[in-house]
Design goal:
This protein is mainly α. The protein has 14 helices and no strands.
Length: 384
């Protein structure tokens, strides 16, 4: 199986390399032909500059036409009944304009097909002065426009056809995740809301994920597909409040040492803060088995913010600050850094009671005794 995957990856890399070479060759042939033509002109630099402008304008026009022909269509639904997914209807104005313009251009082009040669000669005559205006400039100008127009059309169509659907799909899925996060936030599920917001920002490329996190698609899995680790964690988190487990049992589950059990315990802590154990959460933050475990420990800590006394809040704050500045700690710009900074800002929020972020007091009689003001002792009268 691994051999087949390796061969498939090697074949894909070969195809991509061949595509890049073919594009470079096609572009290079056109530029080389323009350069050789300009060298034979009396005003070579003028011919070269004018030819580059004509070629660039033709390629831009061809790319715009390729974009119009390659605009993807929005699917009305993925189910057999054609129901739409998500909480909004996508705007299809661009698709309608593209469809209308392509039909108009095809109709006009077919009606003028008989006079195409005359039109190209007129175009070449109009552009010939930009190429020096000497003998041979008219056909070369027409050929230059035709060559780069077709090249730009192919490039614009391929880029639009291959890249634009993925970009639009990622944006739609990210918006669905943001809206779902807002809905969970309104229902009081702060942990689930932040998890969905992080996944939405990852979908848009605004945040990096854990390097060792298993990749899984954000969109809805197909029937029979094996759910990814993030999906399993979300399912355990949603069932935590219906679980019959106690806080001691969840603590023992985390202390088992197996990474899978530790993740299961963290998911239960996320779903029900009453099951959470701060020492276990701090251990997963400061000594994680993986980046995915540390991410889920941060989610569990997010759900504990309203339940922590002063001393434990300070311990969490110190652990997060230490991981953010450590060289082998939480990487900057990742999903974990976003969560850690959000938790720290919540701990330092002015709306919290002062004891939530105060330093722990020392135990013993010295802590109970009121502080004495620093003042010099009264002077004693001198005895005669």
């Amino acid at each position: 199986m691994a051999g087949k995957v390796g061969r498939a990856g090697s074949a894909a890399a070969t195809v991509h390399a061949a595509q890049r070479v073919a594009a470079a060759v096609l572009l290079g042939v056109g530029v080389l032909g323009l350069l050789l033509f300009s060298l034979g002109r009396e005003h070579a630099w003028q011919a070269l500059g004018g030819g580059l402008v004509v070629a660039g304008a033709s390629m831009v026009l061809g790319g715009a036409l390729g974009f119009l022909f390659g605009v993807p269509r929005v699917r009305s639904g993925s189910g057999p009944g054609g129901e739409t997914h998500g909480s909004y209807a996508p705007n299809t104005n661009l698709e309608q304009v593209s469809d209308w313009l392509t039909k108009v251009l095809l109709g006009v082009g077919l009606t003028q097909l008989g006079s195409l040669g005359e039109r190209m000669h007129q175009l070449g005559s109009a552009l010939a002065p930009a190429l020096g205006g000497e003998e041979g400039a008219v056909p070369f100008a027409a050929a230059l426009v035709l060559y780069f127009l077709v090249l730009g059309f192919l490039a614009g169509w391929l880029v639009t056809r291959l890249a634009l659907p993925r970009v639009l799909s990622d944006a739609d899925e990210a918006l669905d995740l943001f809206l779902a996060g807002q809905d969970r936030d309104r229902r009081g599920d702060k942990v689930g809301a932040d998890d969905l917001r992080v996944r939405a920002m990852q979908q848009l490329g605004l945040l990096g994920g854990a390097a060792d996190r298993a990749e899984e698609p954000v969109h809805r899995p197909s029937a029979g597909a094996v759910p990814g680790p993030a999906t399993v964690m979300a399912e355990v988190r949603s069932a935590a409040r219906r679980s019959a487990l106690t806080a001691d049992q969840v603590r023992e589950l985390f202390a088992d040492g197996d990474e899978g059990r530790r993740l299961q315990a963290l998911a239960l802590m996320q779903g029900d803060p009453a099951l959470a154990d701060l020492p276990g959460v701090l251990d997963a933050i400061e000594h994680p088995r993986s980046g995915f475990e540390q991410y889920n420990a941060l989610l569990a800590a997010r759900g504990l913010l309203n339940r922590l006394p002063a001393a434990e809040a300070q311990r969490l704050r110190d652990a997060l600050a230490g991981q953010l500045v450590a060289a082998d700690g939480i990487p900057y710009g990742s999903d974990r850094s976003w969560l850690a900074e959000k938790i720290l800002s919540r701990l330092e929020a002015p709306g919290l009671p002062p004891q939530q972020i105060s330093l722990p007091q020392q135990a013993g009689p010295a802590a109970e005794a009121p502080a004495q003001p620093e003042s010099s002792p009264p002077s004693q009268p001198v005895q005669p």
